[in-house]
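[Meeting: bench + compute handoff]

Bench side (C.D.) handed over the final construct sequence. Compute side (W.E.) agreed to return the predicted structure before the next meeting so the bench team could plan truncations. Sequence as handed over:
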Amino acid sequence: MVFKENETSLALPLGKQTAYLDMISITKEVAGSDYYDLDLEVSWSGLPSKTNRWLTVYGGTIGGETLKVDYWDGSSWINVIPSVSAGWNNIDISGILDSSSFIIRFTDTTSIGDSSQNNYEIDTVYLNLWN
């Protein structure tokens, strides 16, 4: 499978009906530019209403620059994990998840004039919802 910048769909190999995404290795490469920036969005929709709501991110190797997670509150991005570390990163989002959809984004901390390319591994991202 290949993800391409600015594409909203995923092409599956011939005969395959389902794609599972487990390990993500992110490298931002920009041809002809001296600046690097990471902005990867993940969204969920059709979420059930549950009492307990946790966001879980399992980080693998984290590049030399801090990787953070923000959530979209409908008008702006709000930081929820200031620094993703290797291993489990769990955050209670019960007070902020109040609809059937939820959007997060992964960003690097230097977003302007960043001349160093970094690599990040995100193994798992999921919402744990229960009563």
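W.E. noted at the follow-up: The first strand starts at residue 24 and ends at 27. C.D. will use this when planning the next construct.
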